[in-house]
Amino acid sequence: MKTCLSLLSIAVLFASTSFAADDGTPLFNGKDLTGLKVHFKDADKDADPAKTFSVKDDALIVSGKPTCYIYTDKSYKDYVLTFEWRFPEGSSPDSNSGCLVHITPPHKVMPKCVEPQGRYKDHGKLFFLGVKGQDAKFDEAAHKKALKPMGEWSTTEVTCKADGTVSVKLNGVQVASGKSELTSGPIGFQSEGFEVHFRNIKIKEMK
């Protein structure tokens, strides 16, 4: 009996360890902007990145000004991206930001990419910037059901497949999908006029 319990304990421990190890690789370390770069408009090229992107309580605090974006040093393809986000309590439903996937050079504000919308009132809806989108769908009813009150942390999951398909879940609920010719590139987050917070930004690359 003791042997069986020991084996069961080992199995549970192994399963827990495997899950933790497979939870994804952080793209933001919760301490500083290591591994990330900021791109400003030419008119704002002398702006201080620290006034737009700062870190507090393990979260990336985006001031919203000026309009620009932060992006990863590395390029990614065929992956699942997860991140938590919130706008401060009392913010407008029009509060805006966005996640940028498959960023394609040259860098500019805003670059050629696919944007899972970060705006509160239609979070997750896909926008295709500088590229033609196909089969774009946004489920407003599902979005309304999944959306948490302003000020609370929400979780977004973006799945980017090798065939160019991008799908978005908000708090575990499928809200959007679409496809384009873009299949790889850096990952970014927008500063777009409103304060927004991000944390636990992780990527799980598909083998």
Tell me what you see in this structure.
The protein is mainly β and 207 residues long. It has a single domain (26-205), classed as Exo-inulinase, domain 1 (Jelly Rolls, Sandwich). It contains 3 helices and 17 strands. It has helices at 2-21, 49-52, 140-146, and strands spanning 25-26, 36-40, 53-56, 59-62, 68-72, 76-77, 79-86, 99-104, 112-116, 126-129, 134-138, 154-160, 165-170, 173-179, 184-185, 188-191, 196-205.
Radius of gyration: 18 Å
| Strand portion | 35-45%
CATH architecture, please? Sandwich
CATH topology: Jelly Rolls
Mean pLDDT: 91
The helix content is: 10-25%
Structural class: mainly beta
What is the top-level CATH class? Mainly Beta
**Any low-confidence stretches, pLDDT <50, length ≥5?**
1-21
Q: Count every helix, treating DSSP H or I runs of 4 or more residues as helices.
A: 3
Overall morphology? globular
Give me the count of strands. Answer: 17
Summarize the structure.
The protein is mostly beta strands.
Q: Which labels suit this protein?
A:
single chain, 207 residues, mainly beta, Jelly Rolls, nine-stranded antiparallel beta sheet, six-stranded antiparallel beta sheet, 17 strands, 42% strand, globular, disordered N terminus
Write the layout of secondary structure elements.
Layout: H1 2-21, E1 25-26, E2 36-40, H2 49-52, E3 53-56, E4 59-62, E5 68-72, E6 76-77, E7 79-86, E8 99-104, E9 112-116, E10 126-129, E11 134-138, H3 140-146, E12 154-160, E13 165-170, E14 173-179, E15 184-185, E16 188-191, E17 196-205
Antiparallel strand pairs: 1-17, 2-5, 3-4, 4-17, 5-16, 6-15, 7-12, 7-17, 8-9, 8-16, 9-10, 11-14, 12-13, 13-14
